[in-house]
Amino acid sequence: MSLFAIIGHDVADSSAQRQITRAEHVERLQALGREQRLILAGPTPIEHGKSEMSGSLIIADFESLDAAKKWAGAEPYLRDGVYSHVDVKPFVQTLPAPHDTTDSTSSVKVAAS
Question: CA-based diameter of the chain, in Å?
Answer without folding.
Answer: 49
